[in-house]
Please model this.
Amino acid sequence: MGEAAPGGLVDAEVDAGVDAGCDAATDLATDGTVGVSRTVDLGGPVHLVDHGGRADGPTVVLVHGLGGSHLNWDLFAPLLTPHARVLAVDLPGFGRSEPARRRATVHSNVTVLQRLLREVAGEPVVLLGNSMGGMISVLTAAATPDLVRGLVLVDAAVPGPRPTRDPLVALTFTAYALPGVGERFLRLRRRAGSRASVVTMLRLCGVDPAGVPAPLIERSAALVEQRQDVEGMDEAFLTAARSVLRVLADPRDYRRAMAAIRVPVLMVQGDRDRLVAVGNARDVARRHPAWRYVELAGVGHVPQLQVPGRLAAEVLGWLDDLPAVPLPG
Model:
């Protein structure tokens, strides 16, 4: 479901040399790829990175998970750009999109994403969401089918026959859910230090930190330090976590949204995911036989960080089969 506390590698981002107050700037990824960092007004500031890409290809919008940001896609987005235009968004309350008195609930972020698709993307897009971002993408595709031409769910937060059995994950989300306890939990976790927090949460997500480029970890740790004093970030994280838990506790509306989707869907799930049980993903795939379901052996909650090449191969193969958008008129 989620990945880490606000600011971590799998839960936050960092822009190399980008001032948070700038309207646009250069964003340098770990492999030297340059994208354009922008902040747009969608009822408040929303930060995104335009990775560029193939002008005549589909537009792919990347939506991070709980506490995440566009950095989650740093290793993955460049693999798509020869084939598609790629945008990575920071939802309000995460990354460089400050809360600005907005609530960070799932449904509030659906509204923000809808505005982004209308006002920034400018055409029907492929939504690609991880964890909470998958949940938000499902609800967006169901509510505004004219804005979405395809949907990719990467270890999406989905309901299933049983909750996670991982004791650490269960304890962590129990803490998030309890008023007062969640706030204290985040404060205590900071005492371990920013780099230790990043490494700990990578491991919780099933990622070996040794396999992640060191500059990416260091930049992420630096952002943990930078963002922990931003007003409202902890509140946004806990609001989002509690909202995800509420949706999953009574998933009837969520299941109706899944059933309403009429565009092609690719569902990718790591079989070693500690946060979203693989049995949940299999149950959803069984209920939706028209969806393409791919299970990645030995992979955890964030394939885009752990096995970006394998994930890109699955996504690009699926994109090749995506129906073309009819030309206007």
About this structure: The radius of gyration is 18 Å. The longest strand covers residues 45-53. The chain is about 40% helix and 15% strand. Residues 233-249 form the longest helix (17 residues).
